Amino acid sequence: MKALALWAALLAVLYAGLGVGAHLTRSAAEEKILVAVDVSGSIEDVKSGLPRALDFLRARRYAQFKIVTNSANRSLRVIQDWSRDLNLAAVERIVMYTTLDLSTLLEFDDVKTADLVVFVTNAPDTSVLEGVPRSRIVRVK
After folding, report:
1. Where are the domains of the chain?
2. Which candidate in 49, 58, 86, 98 could, as Cys together with 72 as Cys, close a disulfide (CB 3.0–4.6 Å)?
3. 30-139 in CATH: which number?
4. Under a CB-based contact definition with an 8 Å cutoff, are residues 40 and 72 in contact?
5. C-alpha span between 50 and 111 (Å, rounded)
6. Of 44, 9, 54, 36, which is closest to residue 128 (Cα–Cα)?
7. Residue 40 gets which letter from DSSP?
8. CB 87: neighbour CB atoms within 10 A?
């Protein structure tokens, strides 16, 4: 009986150690996800659907998120800098006001370095975004 208890204790410690090791390994190599939101005026009507459209990102346990937008003067705006929490409330507060120019979303340096780039738009033509490696286009309706 002692052998069984010793074997069970050793197995439990080994299992816990592997779990902690896996968690620490994944935490050290967090995935960087850039969310680039098109803020053209046409998306204002469907803005309330943005959190639902981005809900799939909440399941990413070991990830850091950054939210950026384009703007009317062709400058780039950071809504949320790298963080483990995806602040969808900040996405809803974005004022959608500029003319449609998806190419400005490609000007962020983070587009090249992020593990995943999520482009959020309702533009009918997204061909300018389709060649970006490690990217996903989310169309909001």
Report:
1. 30-139
2. 98
3. 3.40.50.410
4. no
5. 20
6. 36
7. B
8. 14
What amino acid is encoded at 21 in this protein?
G
Instruction: Tokens for 126, please give them.
Output: 């997204």
Question: What single-letter amino acid sits at 112?
Answer: K
Residue reference for tokens 């996903």? 136
Predicted model pTM: 0.74
Secondary structure of residue 42 in the 3-state scheme: helix
Residue positions counted in the chain: 141
Six-digit token string for 112: 């090249």
CA atoms of 133 and 49, how far apart (whole Å): 26
**pLDDT tens sequence across 49-98:** 888 888 888 878 889 999 988 766 666 788 889 999 888 888 777 777 66
Location of structure tokens 């703007």: 71
Q: Which residue has the tokens 């979303």?
A: 105
Longest dimension (CA), the chain: 76
Cβ proximity of 113 and 32 under 8 Å: yes
| Structure tokens that stand for 76 in this block | 């780039």
Question: Tokens 């981005």 map to which residue?
Answer: 54
Per DSSP, the three-state class of 8 is helix
Both structure tokens of 129: 């975004």
Place of tokens 């370095």: 113
